[in-house]
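Q: A small favour: would you put together sequence and structure tokens for a protein?
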Amino acid sequence: MIAAVVMCTSLTAVDGDTVRCDGQLMRLLGGGIPYVWGIDTPEIGSHAKCLKERKLALIAKGRLRELLAERGLQIEIKGYDNTPMHRPLVNIYRSDGREVGAVLLSEGFARTWRPRHKNDWCSTDVDHR
């Protein structure tokens, strides 16, 4: 699939790996490949499995919000997820060329996602930023 570049008048963080572009939910790939690998961040609110995950989710969302506030972001749609919403799967590039989700991964706010693999954010070995 050839990537489609989109422009947003409003780009906000929904959680650590989901953004809203002019009302449309989009899932960050973190430089990944749809259905092969991407990034995963802790679940927010009632979707979290423990208090630690909820706290980590708010921290990840805050960092994503900071990254989205930068000028010169470029959003590329690489595919669509298999949910009923068919959310676009996107890579968001900073003006320096680094991908936003990959930044979250390198800074410890995200983990690698792979099919059929669940990240456990409640275990004691999770970074406590």
The chain has two helices and eight strands.
